Amino acid sequence: MEELLLKPRTLEHVKIFWEKSQDEEIERLFPFNRGTLSDAIKLYEESLKPGARSFGKVIYIDGVYIGDVWCYGIDENDDKRAFVSIVIFDKTYWGKGIGKRALKQFCQLVFERYAINKLCAFTYIDNKRSIGSLEGSGFKKMEDFIEDGVVSCYFELSACEESL
């Protein structure tokens, strides 16, 4: 099995991720905001500030940077939840269970680091691999919904389920 490491994000990772995610197939499969490289750098810089509401790691397999996993909308006060997202931009690693492994590691880290009770995630209903990664790492599908004409799914993982 490949060695999977979650490493700290750097400015260079942000630039690589932005470039690699400018891909028609990735854009079709993953519901994340499109923006300029400057927008991505600004979001990254915000994530480094004390009290930031986002946190991320980069995914390495056998020393190769293949994608990012992050949480956003971190709310430790009211809803006690955050939203999680993962994108493996290197398609040669799709369908190998890496997303599930990375999500499991990352979710454990987030629950240890933040005073939250739940992680939430969205994906498009047509993204079967993403759904499999979420379900395989313990997320439960809560509902389907339509946004901008696309059928999507909403998932949740509670802190007590993650520890099982």
From TrEMBL:
Keyword Calcium: no
One Pfam family it belongs to: Acetyltransf_3
UniProt xrefs under InterPro entries: Acyl_CoA_acyltransferase, GNAT_dom, N-acetyltransferase
SUPFAM superfamilies for this protein: Acyl-CoA N-acyltransferases (Nat) (SSF55729)
N-acetyltransferase domain span: 15-160
Keywords on record: Transferase
Single annotated GO MF: acyltransferase activity, transferring groups other than amino-acyl groups
Name by which UniProt lists this protein: Protein N-acetyltransferase, RimJ/RimL family
